[in-house]
Design brief:
360 residues, alpha+beta, two-stranded parallel ribbon, 12% strand
Length: 360
Amino acid sequence: MQNIKEFCYNFKYVAQNGRPDRNPWSIRQVGIYEKFNVETGQSVWIVLQPSGRVYDRLKEGISSKDWQASPVEKNGRAVVASVLIHAGILNTLGCEWGRYLEELNLQDEEAIYTSVGNNCLHTFDFSITFTKRQKVQQCRNKLITALQALNVDIEIIQGCKARHRHLMTNLHGSHKAKGSTKNEQDPQDLQDLQDQLDGHLAELRVHKQAALNTIDNCTWTANLWTIADASASFQQEKILEYRNDETMQSHSQALRDLAEAQKGEAEKMTRLTRQTALDSKMLKALTVMATLYLPAGLLASIFDSSLVQVKKSNDDEDAADAHFVLAHEFWIYLAIILPLTASTALLMTWMRRRATRFIH
């Protein structure tokens, strides 16, 4: 198992996602695992979520002549080829960091040319809005995420360099123990490989420094806006006080007008109440008069009907002994009128009690 060397990492990179209307960039990641046999030069690869370019680079590296050599000559060349594949994949994935950081830097430079207030002093100025503040904060968050990914990538490349040195040391020690020199590599090839890794590492460090500088610019811009807001706060307070006084005066005038209108409405309601009370008195008087005349009307109706008849003792119309005689059907009238009167009285009493219970 000492001849088996494993190497795995999760490399983060930035790529365009094809959504120009939103954020056109996304930070993605690819997982790579390699198990390398130092004795035989055989290698097993597992790649998770590879992009098309990573797949092509891996396929190109595996089909190279270093992997097609005989087992006796393969060991040293396979070590270099393995590291070259890793270096090519890392270089392919990290080629878009410059463009991504440049776009974020342009967004921050736009926020630097900012005027406080509504009137812009120059054509390249724009007023501070909540959306602009959000934009700067989002840019800063993206830069922090990119900085974390760059730190991880730098550590991966440093680990790749250390792995290459470790493999070459083990391979040379194995060959020295066997007394063989067939698999020793050209020093120029080894130096080119180290230069390639160092170049990619230096490029990532430049991107890291650019991200740090842009983060500082975003922080400086936010602090500048805070200072500008503080310098303009006094004038804004005076303007707000003046507008508050105007608002209070207008509200006071509106309340006075409302009070006058309510006073007029109260006077109208008073007159209407008086008129209603007078009408109630008139209706009450008419009701009392009608009640007083009810018995007389009842008697007139009875005597005018056929229930009461005038009977004379003889046929002389001028006879003085004429008298009133009740008709034989008079009991029918009483049998009908008395129950109706009682029912009406009971109905009125029930309705009055129900109305009183509903009110309370």
